[in-house]
């Protein structure tokens, strides 16, 4: 058994998979993916197949965080729907095997884009990628919860009320210093939650381009990844997550589109993406979008604070990057306050 986020006890993994995964044959090697800050993720290579293993980080974790069992459940439920996901195989809920829970799925071959300005692509190839993001997001929100067995995947009631309460508690549990911007944003959100409009869909929770794989020869999404924050909730938060990323500074640090001449680069404006999504989802538009954008900045600030705290505690997936991310919390909080002022 290992408690290291950077390595796996391959002997334990191989023994368990030989017993639980039909057709599995070793020997197996493992390579850790360095992208992502949540659940450590490894490529498993055998003589005949390649898999991906996602595990909870070992050690003391915030309550309800790193729910690999939920990731497994939702991806299994979505197989065969209009939402592209990796095929999941087995879930290990016994932490004694490798030190924490994990699941195994197929590796999906495809293109991964880390930056939303898509510098790898020619100008004319960029807009179709963004339109595909809109199409798949509408498909996620159009999932039949009853038919997929996901009707109980999240609580009833006002999604934003429970999310703000949850992430406020998570942030306080991971707080390392007083940040006035974050306190002000949490207070504003607490007093400005919209009335429940009855919309209740599957929500991804972290919908952005670096959580997707695209087919090698087309703009179609091959798989939406990282379902850790998924639940049944309100769809506008996922739309705002896309716009949140785009509003950040361009380049590898901000990973946004701020300052980019989008027309010259063949990229959609925020309003175009929102209108395209609404047309696909059968919605007239999104009123009061500033609230949803402020909420996504708040939630991301809370996530980053958790990553920073795990890095300080020594159980982050990428400790060096995790320590660097602590400085981003006030930036996201200030951006959330700016969005709040647009309501």
TrEMBL record:
Family matches, as CDD domains: ACAD10_11_N-like
Top-level taxonomic group: Bacteria
Protein keywords: Kinase, Transferase
Classification via InterPro entries: ACAD10-like (IPR052898), ACAD10_11_N (IPR041726), Aminoglycoside_PTrfase (IPR002575), Kinase-like_dom_sf (IPR011009)
A GO term for molecular function: kinase activity
Domain Aminoglycoside phosphotransferase: 30-253
PANTHER family: HAD FAMILY PHOSPHATASE, HYDROLASE, PUTATIVE (AFU_ORTHOLOGUE AFUA_1G12880)-RELATED
Protein name: Phosphotransferase family protein
Organism listed in the record: Pseudooceanicola antarcticus
């Amino acid at each position: 058994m290992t408690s290291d986020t950077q390595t796996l006890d391959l002997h334990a993994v191989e023994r368990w998979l030989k017993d639980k995964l039909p057709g599995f044959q070793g020997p197996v090697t493992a390579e850790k993916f360095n992208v992502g800050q949540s659940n450590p993720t490894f490529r498993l290579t055998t003589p005949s197949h390649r898999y991906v293993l996602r595990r909870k980080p070992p050690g003391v974790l915030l309550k309800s965080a790193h729910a690999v069992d939920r990731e497994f459940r939702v991806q299994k439920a979505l197989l065969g729907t209009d939402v592209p996901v990796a095929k999941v195989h087995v879930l290990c809920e016994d932490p004694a095997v490798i030190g924490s829970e994990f699941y195994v799925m197929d590796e999906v071959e495809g293109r991964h884009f880390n930056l939303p300005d898509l510098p790898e692509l020619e100008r004319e190839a960029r807009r179709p990628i963004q339109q595909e993001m809109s199409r798949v997001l509408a498909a996620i929100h159009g999932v039949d919860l009853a038919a997929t067995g996901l009707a109980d995947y999240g609580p009833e009631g006002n999604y934003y009320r429970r999310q703000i309460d949850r992430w406020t508690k998570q942030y306080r549990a991971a707080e390392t210093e007083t940040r006035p911007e974050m306190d002000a944003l949490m207070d504003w959100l607490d007093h400005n939650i919209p009335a429940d409009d009855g919309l209740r869909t599957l929500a991804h929770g972290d919908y952005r381009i670096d959580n997707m794989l695209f087919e090698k020869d087309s703009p179609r999404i091959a798989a939406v990844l990282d379902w850790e924050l998924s639940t049944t909730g309100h769809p506008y938060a996922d739309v705002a997550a896309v716009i949140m990323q785009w509003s950040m500074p361009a380049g590898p640090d901000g990973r946004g589109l701020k300052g980019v001449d989008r027309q010259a680069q063949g990229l959609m404006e925020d309003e175009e993406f929102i209108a395209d999504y609404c047309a696909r989802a059968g919605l007239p538009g999104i009123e009061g979008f500033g609230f949803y954008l402020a909420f996504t900045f708040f939630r991301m600030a809370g996530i980053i604070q958790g990553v920073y705290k795990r890095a300080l505690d020594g159980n982050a997936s990428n400790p060096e990057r995790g320590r660097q991310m602590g400085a981003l919390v006030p930036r996201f909080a200030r951006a959330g306050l700016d969005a709040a002022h647009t309501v």
